[in-house]
What we know:
The protein has no helices and ten strands. The chain is 0% helix and 42% strand. It is mostly beta strands. The strands form two sheets. It has a six-stranded mixed sheet, with no helix packed on it. The protein has a four-stranded antiparallel sheet with strand order 4-9-6-7, with no helix packed on it.
Amino acid sequence: ATTNYQYVTNECPVNGYYTLLNKGIECNYGWHVLTGDHTGDSNGYFMLVDASFEPSDFYLDTVKSLCANTTYEFAAWMLNMKYLIQGARPNITFNIETVTGQVLQSYNSGDIPVEQTAIWKQYGFYFSTPANITNVVLRMTNNAPGGEGNDLALDDITFRPCGQLITASVAGD
């Protein structure tokens, strides 16, 4: 996978940069201090992003050899790093595209709310592959401007097949 953001090793990225952390410090006034990833694992890592001034891609990847007529989930766990109501709110569009750039399906998170406590929430959607498509491009785009606000944490970006719930049991003694 690729991103339009630049990686930094320090704990506090600036506009247009990201880092990978398993806990956080208050990098900017009004940011949450995270103690772990969305699972609560203090050893689990997440992507901490200080959004760029212009909308751009957080995540871009190509998935090959998909099964036709199969339902998949494209999702990620996210939270708005701000706990103060000021500045832009993160707003992410998830696209599934052909390798030539045609959008097959899209989902928008809407503005990710400001919360007084850090609340991870999963955003995403389900997609069924058309009969003639076996390769797709996954794209997550930041729609809001950077500067004040639009700072977020991303965790567990997933693309996985989904099926009906199957319950197994054994009859008899």
